[in-house]
Amino acid sequence: MSGHSKWHNIQGRKNAQDAKRGKIFQKISRDLYQAAKTGDPDPANNPQLRLVIDKAHAANMPKKNIQRAIEKATGAGGAKFEEVTYEGYGPGGVAVMVFALTDNKNRAAAAVRSAFTHSGGSLGASGSVSYMFDRKGLIEILRDGLDKSEDDMLMDALDAGAEDMKATDDKFQIFTAPSDMTSVRDALQEQGYELDTAEVTMIPQNTTVVPSDKVSQYKHLIDELTDNDDVADIYEAGVIEDDDDAE
User: Fold this and answer.
1) Do the strands 94-102 and 231-236 form a parallel or antiparallel pair, or are they unpaired?
2) pTM of this prediction?
3) How far is Cα 155 from Cα 41, in angstroms, rounded to an integer?
4) Exposed / middle / buried, residue 187 (Cβ in 10 Å: 0-12, 13-18, 19+)
5) Closest CA to 194 of 138, 145, 151, 136
6) Which pLDDT tens digit goes with each residue over 72-123?
């Protein structure tokens, strides 16, 4: 029995690691798609695409996954992918936006609706929650090994054309107008900064604490959406407080 238990524990840890790796790959795939869609699909002529490809390699993402994401953006391989946004409320009334890249809109819509329903949420009409989010450029710089005070970093960010900055224990988050993200990114790179993230995203204007009795349902919603191959990104306004869940 002890041998079986040990195998079960190892397998459980492996499954958790695989799930985490899958979520990382999903986000990188979305970033690859956006970089190739909005710029040159040749990384030699697209600094943003090179940045994301480097991140993909660092995460040990298979080359075929990288190529597939770029092909989605360029239409190579015959499949035509469309961008679709879904809006709704998760458990506890938390606003959630889902960005999908799919070659079958009916399949994607049914799966997203099912995820909301299974978790006690509800999918809404277009515009039902998007007004609660602001479209912003987001650039993140890791603080590890960076000898910069918050004041100096803020000045460099503002000089580069950023609108605002937020500092956490492990990184600087720099916010820009969507149209300025590329120029701010390039200016910071020219100053020698190594960027961890550079993207246009949706930032919630306000966050909602998920009720403690709804946390499990809320996690289930996010996990089910994340596991959906059609889903490229999830924008959520929910905050889970005192989360000691080790799942």
Assistant:
1) antiparallel
2) 0.74
3) 33
4) middle
5) 145
6) 887 766 667 788 999 999 999 999 999 998 889 999 999 999 999 999 999 9
